[in-house]
Amino acid sequence: MAQNALARERLFALRETIAKLEGKPAPALAAVEREALALGKTGQQDTKRDRRGCLPFGVTSLDEAMGGGLPLDAITEIRSALFRDAGAACGFALAAAALLQRVEEEAGDRSPMLWIGDAVSTIEAGLPYAVGLQDFGLQPGRFVHASPRKLDEALWLAETAVESGAFSVVILEIRGNPAHFGLTESRRLGLRAKAAGRPLFLLRQAGEEEASSAVFRLLAEPAPSGMRALPDGSRLAGSIGNPVFRLSLEKSRNPASLSLLLEWNPHERQFFPVGEPRHALTPDERSAYPGAQLSASFDGQDRPQKMGPFLAFERAS
C-alpha cells in the first residue's frame, strides 16, 4: 500500500514537471477547473481571481520586492525562528488578515477568516483572545478558530476551507518542521488556493527554512515599539505605541534580500515603515536608576557541547 502511494506521488510530481516544461496548466489544477466548469462556476471563480490579484502593504520597498504585494491566490509562509517570537509571527499574520478584511469591506465583501491551530503549537503559543483581536483591528464576529487534534486533520481542514472559498483567508499554524507536512502536502494546498483564488497563510512557529510551494516566506521578529503619538503630533513619554515587527523576506523572486521594520496601526488598519531604533540615549533619556553593570563571569560553567557520534557498548551484566 505504501509503495503504491509512493508511486502515485512520483507520477504526480512527474506530470507536474512535464506540464510546467510544456507551459500547460498543472494536471491537478486543470482537474479542479474541469470540475468547476461542470458545476457552472468557472467564470465566477476566474472573475474573482482577476479581481483579487494581490494585497499591497502600502510600503514601497516591500511591495516592489513582492511584485505588488501579498498574493491572494497562493501560500505565504510566515515563520518565527524561536518560540519566544511566536507573538510577533502571530501578530503579523493577524495584521495582514486585518488589512485584507479592510480592503474587502471597502469592496462590499464581509467574508470571515479561519484560524486553524495545531494542537501542539496551541499548547505553546496559546489561543486567540476576542478582546485582543478587536483591539488589534479585527472583528471577533468574523473570526473562526479551529483546533484539530492531529496534524493530518488540520491539513485536511485547511485544504477543504481554502477550496470552499468561504473564507477571506485561512491561517494554518503549525509547530516546527513536522514530518507529515512536506513539499507534497504544501503543493496540494497551493493548488487548492490557486484554483479557489483564496490566500493561505502558513504560520510556522519555531521552524527552520525548508522547501515548500509558498510563493513568499517571511521571517517575523519582535521589534521595540515607539512612544504613543498624541493628537498634536507629540509623543507621550514613558508610553508604549503601536506594535512593530522586523520583517525579513527570505524567499521571493527578487534575489536581493530585504529586512525592514513595520509598524501596525490597528485603528487605521495599515502598515507604516519605521526607522531603526536608536540604541544610544541622551543623558535626559536615560533611566535614573539604571542598575549596576555586572561584568561577565570568567569561571562559570561552559555551554554544553553538541552531542556527536557515540558508541553504545554492551552491558557488562
UniProtKB/TrEMBL annotation:
The residue stretches assigned to a coiled coil in this entry are none
Basic and acidic residues: which segments have biased composition? 277-287
SUPFAM superfamilies cross-referenced by the UniProt entry: P-loop containing nucleoside triphosphate hydrolases (SSF52540)
Annotated segments matching region Disordered: 277-317
Cite the InterPro entries for this sequence.
Answer: ImuA (IPR017026), P-loop_NTPase (IPR027417)
Name listed for the protein in its UniProt record: Protein ImuA
Native species of this protein?
Answer: Rhizobium aethiopicum
